[in-house]
Design a protein that fits this description.
This protein is of the alpha/beta class. The protein is 31% helix and 17% strand. The protein is globular.
């Protein structure tokens, strides 16, 4: 069984394509008891964390999930924009080296991926972020490219 969890709707970006900001999911700082019970009963093989930006929840939250699911060998996967990880690498580095913890990312061509300051998150910025992540994590995160009406002219590129 795979389980998808949104630990927050908070994000450090303001992307035009993302509907998560319309949700009002409080940011989990620790694992609630009801989630612990669910994990122990369901014994998921994989837990995928999305958001918002899942790294708005602290690394300790994910360490706690790894501890709870250790006996089942559950894999933890975050779909992240990587910004908080790169900015706080000292906090995230031990998780990035954990054999059951992986990070993936996405990129949206065009001007619809927006930073909090209102500027566009460019392809060059994305590549620089991936390079930094690769340096620290020792692997390249898998990624998806988001295509919608804002960037369909780039789909072939």
């Amino acid at each position: 069984m795979e389980l998808i969890i949104k630990p927050t709707s908070d994000c450090n970006f303001r992307c035009k394509f993302c509907a998560a900001s319309n949700c009002k999911i409080p940011t989990l700082k620790s694992v609630p008891d009801n989630l612990k019970i669910l994990l122990l009963k369901s014994k998921p093989s994989t837990i995928i964390f999305t958001g918002g930006e899942p790294t708005m929840s602290p690394p300790e939250f994910y360490k706690e999930i790894l501890d709870i699911t250790k006996q089942f060998g559950t894999t933890i996967s975050l779909t992240s924009n990587l910004y908080n990880i790169i900015d706080n690498m000292a906090d995230w580095s031990s998780l990035l080296k954990h054999d059951r913890f992986k990070v993936s990312t996405s990129f949206q061509y065009g001007d619809s991926r927006i930073l909090k300051d209102g500027s566009s998150y460019t392809e060059k910025m994305f590549i620089d972020t991936i390079d930094q992540f690769r340096f620290w994590a020792k692997y390249t995160p898998s990624f998806i490219s988001v295509i919608d009406e804002h960037n369909e002219q780039y789909a072939i590129d």
